Model the fold of this input.
Amino acid sequence: MKFLQIVKRDLLFYRWNNLATVLLAMVCCAVLTGALLVGDSVRYSLLRLSRMRVGTVQFACSTGEGYFRQELAGELAESSGSVVAPVLALKGILESPDGTVRVNQLNIYGIDTTFWQLASDSQGIDLSADQILPNELLADRLGGYTGELLLRLGTDTVLSQDLIFSTEGSNSRAWDVQIGTRVPDDLLGRFSLQAQQSSPLNVFVPIEWLAEKAQLGGKANMLLVGHDGSGKTGPEEYDKLIRRFATLSDYGLGLRDIKEQNVIELHSPDIFLQKAVTKTATAIGSDASGIFTYFVNELASGEESVPYSTVAAVDTAFLSGLANDQIAVNEWLAATLNVGVGDTIRMRYFKITPTRELTEETSEFTVGRVVPMMGPFADPTLMPALPGLSDADNCRDWEPGIPLDLDKIGRRDEAYWDRYGGTPKAYISLAAAGDIWANRFGNLTAVRWPGQSNSQEDIRSLLLEKIDPATIGFYFKDVQATAEKSASGSTDFAGLFAGLSMFLIFSAAILLALIFVFYVEFRSDQVGLLLAVGWNWLRIFILFMIEGSILALAGCVLGAAVSVFYSWMLISLLNATFWAKALADLQLEFHAEATTVVMGIFISLLICVFSIQLALFRRIRKPVHQLLTRTFENYLSARKKMSRFFLWLGLICFALAVLLPWQSKLEQSQTGAFFMTGILLLLSVFFLSADGLKWLRSKSASFAQSLPLLALKNIPRRSGRSLAVLTTLACGVFMVIGVGANYKDVGADAQQRDSGTGGFAFIAETTLPLTTIPVLPQPAQRGILPIVDDAVVGFRVYQQDDASCLNLNRAAQPTLLGVQPQRLAEKKAFAFQKTIDGDVSGWELLDQNLPDGAIGAIGDYATVVWGLKKKLSDTIPYRDENGTMFHLQIVGILKESVLQGRLLISEDQFVRHFPSIDGRRLFLIEADWNNLDTQAAQLTRAYRDFGMELVEGTSVLAQYHEVENTYMAIFMALGGLGLVLGSAGLGLVLILNVLDRKTELAMMQAVGFRKPALGVMLFLEHGLLLLGGLLAGLIPALWAVIPIIRTRGGDFPYAIIICMVIAMLASGAVWVRVAIRGILKMKFLEMLKNQ
Amino acid sequence: MLELIQVTKTYPGEAENVTVLDEIDLTVKPGQTVSFTGPSGSGKTTLLNLIGGLDRPSSGKVFLNRTNLASLREGELARLRNTQIGFVFQLHYLLPQCTVLENVLLPTLAERQSEIERSQVLKRAVELLEKVGLQKYRDVHPGQISGGQRQRVAVARALVNQPELLLADEPTGSLDAETAEQIANLLLELNRSENVTLIVASHSHKLAEQMQRKFRVDHKQLMEI
Done:
């Protein structure tokens, strides 16, 4: 007979004995492979949504507030052979005239028919003026509304809202529109360049129509390149085409000849020239000179003053010999103020602050020269085109975006305006201007070249050649690669669910090992016989390993089949829970990759085989006579000194568990402290239990003069089994209780500053930026507290990816918020988990200079650790709107916050890198906690033209908690199943123990023990083991959650934990009882008689 | 003290029932020593099991101190076994986790005891260990003593509740000749000192010869030799 024939005969003969092994391997594989398949399904669903979101768009260039000619798209398309669509992307609000319909945060896409070619399905929809095509989500939101709607845009899309010269606006414009055909999701209805699984609210309109309405005739701010196999593989190839085809107007620049002055001038309709442009421009041509003309409130000397004048800052090429503390005045001003060289002039002016707060400052200069009002000093074109000023016929018609006291303007001033227009009345040096008028928009209003030594064409060519389009926001991104990366690199659901199922897999493996022990012991006399007839250990080991592996493989293959159903069930469960609702009604689709299934089988097989060999090795390494007679127990002499190695190990672990987590650093991290303490305490419990069992075994001084004492003495008889069950139960209880304790609730402390709301009642987001703070100085009713400036903290928003737990896509670059750190520091808002410098208040770290020019950033724990997979001091690269790369460094991590998913940086740094982003769009608002509904309604009404969406901070936190709690609920459910298996293991151990001791029990019955008494003894024996396992898990878990109890106080979920403990105890007791009932039906006396 | 009247024991077989004992009669007086011998499968152990209340006859009656064992319920039978009968098996069935003394005390745990009773049985267990010559091993585990010593512990355990009847099934079956003789002597000595009725089932003629009454079990019948 061949070796494998024995294997075959064994498997066939013991097929029923081995059914449990196969079933447990099946559970192991089904759970593990199922978890991996959930990962597959999430990835597949996100990838499908990503592809739907970007269609066939391969590369995209979005210039934000920079607008270029729509023809540029045609030029790129013609040159490359690709489909290139121009898009004008703006934000807006949709509302019905009667106010019954209101949609904020609306993405308005001005498109032409080429856009439809970028969808997978290129069958487009006709576009017509005054008609909006809503995407599916918006159409659903609008419901059956068929009436007229108003489409509202911001006030001035050309000029930055932050410029003091721009018109501050609540006078946004709106147009009547009709609702057209809905744009399905597979026709780019979900189009967005941000990685998110939720559908945005989109409308599509003709680009020409939108451009005209937004006073951006013929302009676009986005180029989309389709994937059509044109051979251009990288975005940089399209960057080169931009360089080739872009005009100065595409860069927001203008070049003109000023014949009166015989100069060529570079200027911008945005008033200021970007710093990257001025750096390039001043370096080309010959004798370039920079000009910075500013509007000042007053020029005065002594008692005389002149209101509202332009002052130009010029360089030495324009006006040589002017020191930085000197001012050159024209003859008119000198005469009006009655000043001459050496006199002092006071200049009052509004400073441009990042927050658009107007602070008036004063600087003093000494008159260095008095210039004649002729030649370059009689040049009204030095004043840039300021809206509300340049186009006014007289001073009384001035309407700049700053408060003016027109009464101050006298007849002489009107006369000057009539005769000289915006001609500057004074001149200072560029260096002096840089000191007093520095702002984020630029440091020059024009660059000029002498006409005699330069030609406009030469300057144009040089500028187009030298300006790097990327520095003004013209660069392409690989949209497909980003979409694929964000979907496939999303939250690792395979890992997450494998982690959540870990305890269930562990329990199944332990149970599998116990079952296999049972099988081997059942055949131990055969092992003894084989050894007796000359087989060696290894050969027998291999025989059983082959049998075990075949059984495990059969189980795993079955498990792989079951895993399909299991993962489908999990996905259906997720789709049906609040989890899906919190994630914008995300509906996961089941998807299985063959490689995943094979991997699941392979890993499960390894786990099973490892468990089997662990069980097998010790079981067959016994003396032959023991195997033949099935006597495995060997008691130490009572007098022999017992090794206390485990005792010391246990005590050391206990001491570490008590001391370590309370160190300040660890205490800051509740999760870290929980796991550190928990693991040490579990180890301590394990070692102390091992020592306790040894002690019980060796303890002979105490008489077992009662049934309970005899039961106690029975516990350590098969200490390996007892320890396996005790450890399994302890781990399970620890995990389930620990996770239960972390179950999140918004709680009663939501009004506290150190809570997740930061003490702010509302978080408000506007569609259109606000340059002022949203306030409610006049409450709707008496008794309600007003909302004043100090109650609101505003944030600038650079919209990027949502890195919160609500977005399953991998967020490479989360949305950035610019905030004035001292505003949050003063309020002591939010609690920090960690900071890079414990001596500095967290928020102040945003203002600190960091090495290598990095910018300090703060995010909450979920964003930094889970969303971005980063830790303190890690850096994240960003590209600013000038195309320059910069790095954010995590300087602080908040415990939790309503700002989850974003990173906060200081407003100063924000405006430095994103100067064109206007105003603020996010606000944290303190309100009257007793009248939130009233105040919410009042605020929303007051700022409806800006599309304000107001949410209570507690609701935002609850939404985040909902997602996290779902994961914890799954963990607890799977952990609970694991515990059921663990307690089933206890029942199995009981049966194994009884089978080992059946003759002994028979003898006890023979000498007068009744069966109920034997049942009590067995119940006590295994009940104590159950109780020990529960306590061994419960005590470390409760100890480890002390920091959480201290933080959450009365909010701690005691009820959940008590219920879970009772459920576990009951489950264990039931299994033990069931096993005992079965056992007591056995006829012990028959066994004795037979023997 | 012990009376068997027309006791028959039949086991169900594949084709037909198998009768092991057929209408056996036996009377044993207090303090007597009795041996059952006979070939393997003759029914010695079956007879002992019927006497000890481990099994019930198919017909006939077994009286122990005028109590018909067949009329007792399981609980009553267990109590009777605990208080009136002592068992010594071929295999000692000692609990490996308990010490020698605890093993002797094991039968006393079957019923609730007062503190006084507990100290009394402890004293008796110690005395019994002295009688079987194992007083110095009282605190060791069975795994640390020899086979003969283990059987002596089993004997002491059988006597701890001062039974009137001691049943020994092949008590020397797994022992060498010298140890077997020691055990046989011990049983007889205890019979005298404890005034306990001793019934032994054994293949060993040497052991059987030492009993006052000798019976042979063969062909379903019991014959006094």
